[in-house]
Design brief:
Elements (H helix, E strand, L loop, with lengths): L6 E7 L6 H9 L6 E7 L6 H11 L3 E5 L5 H11 L4 E4 L5 E2 L3 H11 L5 E10 L5 H10 L5 H7 L12 E3 H7 L9 H11 L4 E13 L4 H4 L5 H19 L5 E5 L3 H12 L3 E7 L10 E3 L11 E3 L6 H11 L8 E3 L2
Parallel strand pairs: 1-2, 1-4, 2-3, 6-8, 9-10, 9-12, 10-11, 12-13
Antiparallel strand pairs: 4-7, 5-8, 6-7
Helix pairs in contact: 8-10, 10-11
Length: 336
Amino acid sequence: MSKNPEISLILPFYNAEDTLEAAIKSILNQSLNDFEILLIDNNSTDNSTNIAQKLALTDLRIQLLFETKQGVANAMNCGLKKARGKFLARMDADDIAHPNRLEKQVAYLKKNTEIGFVGSEVEYVPHNKNTAGFSRFVDWANSFHTPEEIELNRFIEIPIVNPTILFRRELFEKYGGCFDGDFPEDYEMQLRYLNAGVKMAKLPEQLLEWHDYSSRLTRCDERYSTEAFFRVKAKYFNSWSVINNPFHPNIWVWGAGRKTRQRAKFLENMGLVIKGYIDIKKSKTTTKPTLHFTEIPNRGQLFIVQMVTKPGARKLIKDFLLKADYLEGEDFILMG
């Protein structure tokens, strides 16, 4: 192992005895081998620690660390502080990296010096019955790749699947690591970096098997609820709106249903002013002006934030607005 490895890969784990070894070995078998693996044990009570210790004895590139403060953000920060690599990568304890993942991502960042943060598409491997939502998310996340697409899609969901990320060390030194709170820490970190002007890209290849177990935090932790996502979206959308919304702080929200109006309050809490709502129902009434979607004015008179989360609605709304000559990122943004 070189004195300063090119890549520091951070792999937090908690009670992952069934999947940890396979995840680690998928990194050890990478085509690029100049890396260190920082395994962060976050108070495991099963056999995970023993598995990690045994593997660390077989390969000097593995370092086992312990983080007693519970939470993936704390575990990730533990690894970031110990990392020595020029590039920092993330991996989950229940996923499998394809053999050329690191090589392709590092090569991309070396070639594209303006890009600071790169991910990849994922191969979705479900282990649950209720997979429709996750499957839709994967299809969406795999559908766009360029920095421009990532910037426009950032307020819909996390734009890059977290265990695929690899980024330049100086970004962590400049903008920090994971923040711990009542929000999805990985999404917050990507929004924070994007807000700072970091250019992100995604390789149009599936370089990770993304395994969807019932124990995945996105399924069982309140910090990954829809409301938690909207809270963190609201914070960074406000910053984005200052620069990109010509009518800031005024917006119109597409979606006048009760749930959408509740989530729109997160925007109001950030200081944004909802001038009214747009809906598909002509009879829809709220305490604010409500337009039927066929009544929206010509572009240049308002800014629309699409917040409907019903499957399929986002595409229909986007297609309608584009046909009406509205420009994404200038006249409207997708958030639902």
